[in-house]
Structures are given as C-alpha cells and as structure tokens.
Design brief:
single chain, alpha/beta
Length: 200
C-alpha cells in the first residue's frame, strides 16, 4: 500500500488542490492531509475539498490531528502523533481507523495496546521534512514490525531506490510526502513505486 502525505509548501503545482487532484488520479491507497500549521477553519476548508477529490477518485482520505474536523465532515479516519493519541484515547471510539505516528518499539506497543489500528513509523531514512533527524534505519524498522500485530507503514526518505528494503522489513506499506508532492507526474512516480514493491 502507498499512502500520500500532503505538504502544500512543496507542491509541484501552484494550486495545492490541483496537486491533490493529480495525486488522487494516480490512485494511492490513501491521502493524509497533514497541514498542521493551519487554523482549524483553514484546515477544515482543505479537508472538505480533499475529501471531495478523494471520494470522486475512490481514494481513502485521512484527517491529521484535527479531531473536530474529522468528526464534522463525517470522516472515519484520523492520524495522530503518539503523545496527542495517548491524550485523546477516550475520544477516538467513533473512528473506524486510528493511525498513530510512532518513533520507537515502545511507542508502537503502547499505541497498539491503547487502540491504534495502524502505525506510521519513522523516520526510516534521512528526510527533508526533518533535516536534523538521523534516519532510524532498517533494523529498527524490523523490530517495530515484529513487535506488533497491527499494520506498520514506514515513512521518511523513502523512494524508488530503497522501497524494496522497507517492504522486506515487514511493513504493510509506505507513506511518502516529498516524492509525490514535488512530482509533476504522480502517475509515473506511483507506477515506479508499485513496480518496485511488486518485485519483493
């Protein structure tokens, strides 16, 4: 599975929603709207538009962090960093899918114990999103995948050259930000990723 993570600051197309449309037409398994710097009102506007685009192209859509927005637009998926997830465990029962970002084996096991349905582990390699963060590497990724029963998705510096190693580590799939947000041809980018994944 390939999950697209948004970042309007690096969009290849001037209009962010045009970039989302281009990515959605390439049929990723899901798009996560990760625009944490927005106000709730600003985020909600983009969430409504992104959900409309995703619904049209039959792509799953996931809200990042803004629980009230997810509830108000009747979206059954939410993605949270580990600490906010733990702080809001009691408020997540109505969500069909709860994706949690984790950075260690301990956080992975705690997230699963507290009701997470999916994990996003990173950063696996060096990434422009967190330029000062050293990549955790494949060995730690393998440990995380082996420590939980729920699906683990890898994030951080993943591209066509290293995606095979990531899948071999036991991941259910990958999350990519830079690779798709900067792409002027998401179809070709997605096709190449899928080819590399199918070879594993």
């Amino acid at each position: 599975m390939i999950i697209a993570v948004t970042d309007r600051r690096i969009s290849a197309l001037r209009d962010f929603l045009d970039q989302i449309e281009a990515i959605a037409t390439a049929s990723p398994d899901m798009i996560i709207l990760r625009e944490k710097d927005l106000s709730e009102a600003g985020y909600r506007y983009l969430a409504v538009e992104c959900q409309r685009i995703c619904d049209y192209h039959n792509v799953k859509f996931c809200v990042n962090s803004f629980l009230n927005v997810a509830a108000s637009i009747n979206n059954g998926r939410v993605q949270l960093p580990f600490d906010p997830f733990i702080a809001n465990v009691g408020k997540l029962n109505n969500f069909e899918e709860v994706w949690v970002s984790v950075h260690s084996k301990y956080e992975s096991m705690e997230a699963e114990k507290n009701g997470a349905t999916h994990l996003i582990y990173g950063n696996v390699f060096e990434t422009t999103c967190k330029p000062d963060a050293i990549g955790k590497g494949i060995n730690e990724l393998k440990e995380v995948c082996g420590s939980v029963r729920i699906p683990v998705f890898a994030i951080g510096g993943i591209d066509t050259g290293n995606v095979g190693m990531v899948i071999d580590a036991g991941c259910k799939g990958i999350c990519v930000r830079n690779l798709l947000m900067r792409s002027t041809d998401p179809h070709t980018t997605m096709d190449e990723l899928r080819k590399r994944i199918k070879k594993r």
